[in-house]
RNA sequence: GCCCCCAUCGUCUAGUGGCCUAGGACACCACCCUUUCAAGGUGGCGGCACGGGUUCGAAUCCCGUUGGGGGUGCCA
């Protein structure tokens, strides 16, 4: 019991937007690792304060996405989902206490009026106009926090001490004119209500932190331990945004990235697991330390993610690979044939979604002829006679990859060709392309009749 | 504008005053292997932003400059 009482409580607090941001995934992973390695708890809180964006299916999406990266709602370290909206009473109650304690005051100025006034006075921002007007609650009145004089020091697990001169912080809004609480208040009240001990989030929240810390103190509580990890950026070094960048975790999932690869890659951003950066989650989960987190923004590099994914795909057993690819394969494709080819396509895949495109010629009625490939190979003088010879020899040959290969090797000497050149017309005839999985293995899987049919068709086309 | 954060190869990082002639990975290039393309192997290219200190000694500590980023809402 004692241990439970002392166990840290981390939280992950996404707002439901309909897609799960990769940056959020990384933050979730950090919190998850920290909670699990300390015997603590990972609290999932859905920040649904903004009524406009609040749909139940969004929450399902978040839970699914978390599950995909190994953060299971069934794990004993997982708590939630809790909903911010369910704490509305507590938010307003806190607001009331803040007002009654003199830590907050009401103001009836609209944003437009504030702007005009600032402009007229040649200043910027709000300026605390209603501080001493003694206004009470009322329609259109916002509640503002009375920022005290002095300095606020945020002790951050990643960045050390960060000092803010309170004079640079405006009297910010706690409750909107329509009576609803703003994120900054709700966030603090929820963290307190949920007994959160550690707030680990992205750096973009650092400027909020002194404000939240002041609210904690005004409410009479000790703030949690803060930690702000650097943001993820795009190739322009701008924060990853859903408008510009490919940030939806679901999209990577649907393209056939393996969760293990995504998790591993995400963890290497801003942190390093040590000697070898390819590490299983079980190891990273134990090794991860906030003190070791880098301080500068990290570029989310699709190429490196792809490299990780390829590496993870190559580590799969054939059975695992076949099973993993299944969702991307058309229903009517012969699974046994695909399985035969699986070991051969394995080193050629970047994503699971690439699989069908590599072996589609095996399952279609006719190969889709790539004209560039055709022109490159079939216009050679030897193409037609060689193809004719191959057809003749293959009518009799043992239909195994080995004999098919040696048979072609016997023929090619007549034309003074190397295997690389000699196999090309056959490959284009059968697959339609110049590149693809190992030819003779593919022929073996395709079978004699269909293979010969395609070669004859090609011969005819050459004329 | 103001506040805050940051700064090691193109990118992600190792490095916490001497082990650094700065290590690894991705990308790129070359070669090898080879049944095309991959994968794999070997090698190469490439970096401590700049200027001052501190120190016997600095990528590592301090200051400044420059450059990036984040925040500046009655969004979260």
Helicity level, as a percent range? Answer: 40-55%
Q: Give the end-to-end Cα distance, rounded to a whole number of Å.
A: 85 Å
Radius of gyration: 31 Å
* Total strands: 12
Beta-strand residue fraction: 5-15%
Largest sheet: 3 strands, parallel
Number of continuous helical runs: 20
Q: If strands are numbered along the chain, what order do they take across the biggest sheet?
A: 1-2-3
Principal-axes geometry comes out as elongated
Average predicted local confidence, pLDDT: 94
* Poorly predicted runs: none
Summarize the structure.
With about 475 residues, this protein is an alpha/beta fold. Helices cover about 45% and strands about 10% of the residues. It has helices spanning about 1-5, 20-35, 55-70, 90-100, 110-120, 185-195, 210-220, 250-255, 260-265, 280-285, 300-315, 320-325, 335-345, 355-360, 370-380, 385-395, 400-410, 420-430, 440-445, 450-460, and strands at about 10, 40-45, 80-85, 105, 140-145, 150-155, 160-165, 175, 200, 225-230, 230-235, 300.
Properties at a glance:
alpha/beta; 20 helices; 463 residues; RNA-binding; 3-stranded parallel sheet; 3-stranded antiparallel sheet
